[in-house]
């Protein structure tokens, strides 16, 4: 009759009782057996240890999720398998706005930390990116090269350092996936395999000097930063770059980083603060004709963080002044869920 016909006639349950699980697995193969029985039943029959040996830890973690895996294996075993050994003083909280962003120094990291992101309740942390570059101020305060783009939910920038090479990555889904920054179109000799845009993500310790990167909730999607184009980030030949679409594409603004004047150092080493009023540069306040809709994309994909969001932005060339409290988000609709959107 053949196995396929026999299974159709007898049914899977009867066939399993007659042949036994081991023989059935040898005939059908693990992948088919998992599709027929389902992961939960297969785990109950085979046991967690055997299932882990067959599927591998990485696949098992992707299916079960970090939280469930931790409950089944226990933290000590999970730490040994993942190669994760940290002390309480090795954790650095980056942000608690919504989900918790934290830096944890693992046993194989010296000058870097690993970025961890919590679930939406903030109860459990899962690894998002390893070998994130860090620095310490003169006062010993730790700083990680991680930047949250203001005004756009879920967009993160981070610098990793491996083998002394620093590279910039971007995430549009709160750290679930990362990719290198696309170099400006004005770099014709920059091939994707060995060349991308890398940014300085350091925040200034002095109130009188600018940060190396800036964004504002009042201008959604607009990011200005200094950096270099090439295989890695360097401290020489830095240029200023601008993105108007939350980091998808970049253009060069000017050849050398611009400087903002905050004050003047007097003869007695006293700072004299200067207030600059830019309102005279704009002849009117913005009206409807000065705006255009802009949809947030992630590599041409309109669904970002489960939402399809459209913002109102000022048209290029419109010389008008924006209102502080004017509506920036025009619409936000839920996207159709895919298997990738669920926690297993």
UniProtKB/TrEMBL annotation:
<protein>
    <recommendedName>
        <fullName>VPS10 domain-containing protein</fullName>
    </recommendedName>
</protein>
<dbReference type="InterPro" id="IPR031778">
    <property type="entry name" value="Sortilin_N"/>
</dbReference>
<dbReference type="InterPro" id="IPR050310">
    <property type="entry name" value="VPS10-sortilin"/>
</dbReference>
<feature type="domain" description="VPS10">
    <location>
        <begin position="3"/>
        <end position="344"/>
    </location>
</feature>
<dbReference type="Pfam" id="PF15902">
    <property type="entry name" value="Sortilin-Vps10"/>
</dbReference>
<keyword id="KW-0677">Repeat</keyword>
<keyword id="KW-0325">Glycoprotein</keyword>
<dbReference type="InterPro" id="IPR006581">
    <property type="entry name" value="VPS10"/>
</dbReference>
């Amino acid at each position: 009759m053949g196995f396929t016909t026999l299974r159709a006639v007898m049914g899977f349950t009867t066939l399993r009782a007659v042949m036994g699980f081991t023989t059935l697995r040898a005939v059908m193969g693990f992948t088919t057996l998992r599709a027929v029985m389902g992961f939960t039943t297969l785990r109950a029959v085979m046991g967690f240890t055997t299932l882990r040996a067959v599927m591998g830890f990485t696949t098992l973690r992707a299916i079960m999720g970090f939280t469930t895996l931790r409950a089944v294996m226990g933290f000590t075993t999970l730490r040994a398998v993942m190669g994760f050994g940290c002390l309480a003083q090795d954790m650095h909280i980056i942000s608690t706005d919504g989900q918790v962003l934290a830096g944890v120094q693992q046993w194989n990291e010296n000058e870097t930390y690993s970025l961890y992101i919590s679930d939406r309740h903030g109860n459990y942390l899962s690894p998002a990116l390893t070998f994130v570059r860090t620095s310490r101020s003169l006062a010993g305060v730790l700083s990680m090269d991680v930047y949250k783009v203001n005004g756009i939910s879920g967009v993160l920038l981070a610098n990793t350092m491996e083998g002394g090479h620093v590279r910039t990555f971007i995430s549009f889904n709160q750290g679930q996936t990362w990719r290198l920054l696309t170099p400006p179109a004005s770099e014709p000799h920059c091939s994707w395999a060995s060349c991308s845009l890398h940014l300085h993500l350091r925040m200034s310790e002095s109130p009188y000097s600018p940060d190396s990167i800036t964004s504002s909730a009042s201008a959604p999607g607009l990011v200005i930063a200094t950096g270099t184009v090439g295989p890695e980030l360097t401290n020489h030949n830095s240029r200023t770059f601008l993105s108007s679409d939350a980091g998808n594409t970049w253009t060069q603004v000017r050849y050398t980083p611009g400087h903002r004047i905050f004050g003047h150092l007097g003869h007695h080493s006293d700072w004299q603060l200067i207030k600059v009023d830019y309102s005279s540069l704009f002849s009117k306040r913005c009206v409807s004709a000065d705006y255009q809709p802009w949809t947030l994309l992630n590599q041409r994909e309109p669904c970002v963080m489960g939402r399809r969001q459209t913002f109102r932005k000022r048209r290029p060339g419109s010389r008008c002044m924006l209102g502080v409290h004017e509506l920036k988000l025009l619409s936000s609709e839920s996207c159709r869920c895919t298997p990738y959107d669920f926690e297993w």
